[in-house]
DNA sequence: TGGGTGACCATAG
DNA sequence: ACTATGGCCACCC
């Protein structure tokens, strides 16, 4: 049985609005597993196998760095997808990360 | 069974 | 700003 954790991660990622981004740690925290931010990354690795589209490009590390770009079809696709949505990216890093940040804890009104 | 690894994070210097 | 270190835990030899 697939971990619910896995499904919950995808569920949240799909909720990220266009032009916004969030971090692995924020998602982990929203799921009550702040200790396992690495698990979020592992879940994302499987995201390609999901039948429903998962906007993985909207998930970066807490530094606003596109650490997962090498897992996309091409090394530049992640950056291009973000720029299409209006997110500026320079040197694999999101400009004005704070401004684009989307916190699931706040937006989803979790306690 | 156990060591190595990772789309991470926090802290220290 | 940068490196080093430790914690985290599922997964793969």
Keywords:
two-stranded parallel sheet; single chain; 40% helix; DNA-binding; mainly alpha; two-stranded antiparallel sheet; globular; 4 strands; 111 residues
Question: What would you say this structure looks like, in words?
Answer:
The chain is mainly alpha-helical and 111 residues long. The chain has a single domain (4-107), classed as Arc Repressor Mutant, subunit A (Orthogonal Bundle). The chain contains six helices and four strands, in the order H-E-H-H-E-H-E-E-H-H. The protein has a two-stranded parallel sheet. It is globular and about 35 Å long. It starts with a helix and ends with a helix. The model has no long low-confidence stretch (mean pLDDT 90). The structure holds a DNA duplex (13 and 13 nucleotides).
Compact overview of the structure:
With 111 residues, the protein is mainly α.
Question: Uncertain spans, ≥5 residues at pLDDT below 50?
Answer: none
Characterize the biggest β-sheet: 2 strands, parallel
**Roughly what is the average pLDDT, rounded to an integer?**
90
Second-tier CATH architecture: Orthogonal Bundle
Any idea of the CATH topology?
Arc Repressor Mutant, subunit A
Gross morphology: globular
The total strand number stands at: 4
Instruction: Report the portion of residues in β strands.
Output: 5-15%
User: Structural class, from secondary structure content?
Assistant: mainly alpha
Based on CA atoms alone, the radius of gyration comes out at 13 Å
Identify the CATH class. Answer: Mainly Alpha
Element string (H = helix, E = strand)? HEHHEHEEHH
Helix content: 25-40%
Count of DSSP H/I helices:
6
Number of domains: 1
Strand order of the largest sheet: 1-2
Between the first and last Cα atoms, what is the distance in angstroms?
Answer: 29 Å
Q: Please, what is the CATH homologous superfamily?
A: Winged helix-like DNA-binding domain superfamily/Winged helix DNA-binding domain
């Amino acid at each position: 049985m697939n971990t619910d954790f896995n499904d919950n991660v995808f569920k949240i990622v799909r909720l990220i609005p266009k032009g916004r981004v969030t971090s692995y740690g924020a998602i982990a925290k929203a799921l009550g597993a702040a200790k396992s931010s690495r698990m979020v990354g592992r879940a994302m690795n499987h995201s390609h196998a999901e039948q429903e589209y998962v906007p993985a490009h909207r998930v970066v590390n807490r530094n606003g760095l596109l650490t997962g770009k090498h897992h996309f079809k091409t090394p530049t696709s992640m950056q291009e997808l973000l720029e299409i949505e209006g997110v500026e990216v320079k040197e694999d890093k999101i400009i004005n990360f704070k401004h684009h940040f989307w916190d699931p804890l706040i937006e989803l009104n979790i306690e």
